[in-house]
Fold this sequence. Notes:
globular; Umud Fragment, subunit A; 4-stranded antiparallel β-sheet
Amino acid sequence: MSEKAEKKQQNALWENIKVVVQALLLAMVIRTILFQPFTIPSGSMMPTLLVGDYIFVNKFAYGYSRYSLPFSPNLFSGRIFGSSPNRGDIVVFRFPPNPDIDYIKRVVGLPGDHIQVKDGILYVNNAAVPRQPDGVFTSDYKLDPGENVPVYRERMDNGRTYDTLDQSPYSRGDNTREFIVPEDHYFMMGDNRDNSLDSRFDVGFVPAENLVGRASIIFFSLGNDTSFREFWKWPANMRWDRLFKVVE
């Protein structure tokens, strides 16, 4: 091989390496600053989000904290470019007792709010959140089949509406004490009200610093407990009607 040909080959290799590095850096920037993919691991947000949904989380919706960065380096405290969630937003956040774990729930209480559940009805600042029957729901998730579970559509005072499940009128989360949300904290609940470990229980109040981002869009969805790796099962188990669905 001539010296000229060898140099040309080396240049081509170097150009390929630069393209790969640039692509990796771009992907890192997008994941760190803009959007992060997230998989729904449990049925706590049914019927809004299902096990097997893959979503994008909008990371710039509420600004950035240490938990916005890979490996959560302790470079600063609080949030920068911060803005507050609205009641009804679905949020990915770090579990306060163990920030290595991601949770996803709906914001029902803002700083200063009084939150209580009485006889299965959510109360915000001593006012019952209106809800109306909205059909029934059956899950394809084997660990939580939930056949013909009553669905209720709630309406927050800001006009935000969403569906919730009420499997039992006697679950331990149907009657709670009154919670007063501290400053710079939020109260979170799952839409699957009788099967959600949330701020009523061990999650507690979620600090603003722990917010990762707002659930934005479902970009992929597999039913019947189908693993992403089982690509040969995709055609039969793809939830086609959920692809690119905006999260409410």
